[in-house]
Amino acid sequence: MASDGRVGVILTGVGKRYDIVSAFAEHAFTIAADPSPLAPARYAADLHVYPPRIDDPEYVPFLQGLVEEHGVRAVVPLTDLDIEVLSRADLPAFVPTPDVCEATYDKYHCHELLLRHGLPSPPTVLPGEEPERFPVMVKPRQGSGARSIHPAADRGETEFFTGYVKEPVMIQRLMDGPEFSIDLLCDMDGRCLNAIPRTMIESRGGESIKGTVIDDPELVELGRAVGEALPARGPCTVQAFRDAEIGLGITDVNTRFGGAFPAPMYAARPGHTYPELIVRMASGETIEPHVGDFASGHTFTRYFWQLELDADGKPTPRDIVADGPKKPRGT
Ligand SMILES: Nc1ncnc2c1ncn2[C@@H]1O[C@H](COP(=O)(O)OP(=O)(O)O)[C@@H](O)[C@H]1O
Ligand SMILES: [Mg+2]
């Protein structure tokens, strides 16, 4: 327990994810760890700290010190960068085992893992191998935030982009049809607690900014199946296309909160939002799976807000309008 009697939770790499930090802070003593003084989400936490770099041997001991000091029962990474480090550490981290973290960090390994589990992944080859057909997507194996992803219409374009992207890539069938994300939560035994699908109407830099939660049993089942096959522990986001010819194909698996945190927040039943469930599990409670139990049909549309920092880098209470964002007006 933290000194205020609440369970302690550390969120790492909080960056701009003010919504996630705020949601945890409703239920737990929340510590935001981020090396950047300008990470706005640090100011949504009860306590914010500057950790050593993830590749520094002091990173894990630093987090372990916080665990001791503040009664932390859950460590939840918000980026891909430290998932594997946390999985290997003696920390109460809501991440999969190291082998699963390693496989999902590399999209080609993830493709192979999905196929081994009989899950649908689009035809994918490595440079030098001939794709079964064009067009394809040339994708970095360790990409994130939709960085350096290029469609290629034929062999010439594929070879060009394979050389142009300065990191290892893979060559995947270009999926047509709509793209979806499924936000799921698994417990520490890899049981899927819920899986909530949404459309991806508009994305910027890997963040989904418009989408609708949908009642699509095939996607709910796909999310559950992926979560339990890996297995995931904690939050996981599965992205898939529904191609007219080959049907569902999984294009990305991230074993952390996805880029559209508000969607499963709005959709979850009261008392069953993912941050609440994580805090309850961290407190030792067993949560019964309730896969498919959520409200659908609601759309989220996201926008920016900001904090003002004074000349000493301290947040001021000022905002561009009094008391922050206004409730929507009009109809
Ligand atoms: N095989 C594919 N076919 C069509 N579009 C794709 C394919 N793979 C990725 N994309 C597009 O690129 C975006 C980013 O790719 P993704 O695999 O999710 O990588 P990351 O999010 O880790 O950068 C996806 O959201 C999707 O819109
Ligand atoms: Mg993605």
Reported CATH architecture of the largest domain: 2-Layer Sandwich
Globally, the shape reads: globular
Strand order of the largest sheet: 3-2-1-4
Rg over CA atoms, rounded to whole Å, is 20 Å
Give the class-level CATH name of the largest domain.
Alpha Beta
End-to-end gap: 45 Å
Beta fraction of the residues?
Answer: 15-25%
Could you tell me which ligands this complex binds, including any ions or cofactors?
adenosine-5'-diphosphate, magnesium ion
- Average pLDDT taken over every residue: 96
Task: Describe the protein's architecture and organization.
- It is built from nine helices and 15 strands.
- The strands form four sheets. A four-stranded parallel beta sheet has the order 3-2-1-4, sandwiched between helices. Strands 5-8-6-7 form a four-stranded antiparallel beta sheet, sandwiched between helices.
- It starts with 7 loop residues before the first strand and ends in a 30-residue tail after the last strand.
- A hairpin with a 5-residue loop joins strand 9 (179-186) and strand 10.
- It folds into three domains: 8-93, Rossmann fold; 101-106 and 176-301, ATP-grasp fold, B domain (D-amino Acid Aminotransferase, Chain A, domain 1); 123-173, 2-Layer Sandwich (Dna Ligase, domain 1).
- The protein is an alpha+beta fold and 331 residues long.
- Magnesium ion is lined by residues 206, 239, 252.
Topology:
Layout: E1 8-12, H1 18-25, E2 29-33, E3 47-49, H2 59-70, E4 72-77, H3 83-88, H4 98-105, H5 107-116, E5 124-125, E6 136-140, E7 150-152, H6 155-164, E8 169-173, E9 179-186, E10 192-199, E11 202-204, E12 207-212, H7 217-229, E13 234-243, E14 247-254, H8 262-267, H9 274-282, E15 299-301
Parallel strand pairs: 1-2, 1-4, 2-3
Antiparallel strand pairs: 5-8, 6-7, 6-8, 9-10, 9-13, 11-12, 12-15, 13-14
Helix pairs in contact: 4-5
The site of adenosine-5'-diphosphate (ADP) has 18 residues, from strand 6, strand 8 and strand 14.
